[in-house]
Amino acid sequence: MPEGDNERPAAAWDEAIVAHSERVRAHDRSRASWIGNGLPLALAVASLVLLLALQAIGLVRDRMALAGVRAAQDAPLAQAAKVRQQLETLGGETARLAQEGDAAARAIVSSMARQGVTLKPPGAQTAPAK
Asked: Is the dihedral of CA 79, 83, 89, 92 positive or negative?
């Protein structure tokens, strides 16, 4: 074989290798460009989503805790309303007895009046609150 034939395939291989290397470098540059530009944005979006998810979880926990506190107050509030109703009934009956002439009831009503508490008999019209 002549020497010129041996050199041509080697030169063709060299050109093919150089062309392939350039394609690989271009691909690596475009990939590095995406990683360089897209990765920080992707991390920022992921961080924002994670932050919002954690905030939502915290808000749900707070809401459940507040619902528990409110439920715990229901029984004492019902008891307080019951005691208030009993006191209003007792005061009303005392005022009714005082109107009927009971001396002890009159003394109680006047003592309560000096302390700023008005006892009204049941069924008495009350002035609307202003």
From this structure: negative
Residue 126, C-beta contacts closer than 8 angstroms, at least 6 positions apart: 120
SS3 content of the chain, % helix, strand, coil (to 5): 85, 0, 15
What is the chain's alpha carbon radius of gyration, rounded to the nearest angstrom?
A: 46
Residue numbers of the domain that contains 17: 3-114
Q: For residue 61, what pLDDT is reported? A: 98
- Considering the domain boundaries, does residue 119 fall inside one? no
> What is the rounded CA–CA span in Å between residue 8 and residue 114?
124
Q: pTM of the prediction?
A: 0.47
CB 94 within 8 A of CB 108: yes
Which single residue is written with the structure tokens 């439920």? 71
How far is residue 126's CA from residue 92's CA, in Å, rounded to a whole number?
12
Chain position carrying tokens 């528990």: 68
Residue 127 forms part of a structural domain: no
pLDDT profile of the chain (130 residues), mean per 10: 56 78 75 68 93 98 97 94 93 90 90 88 62
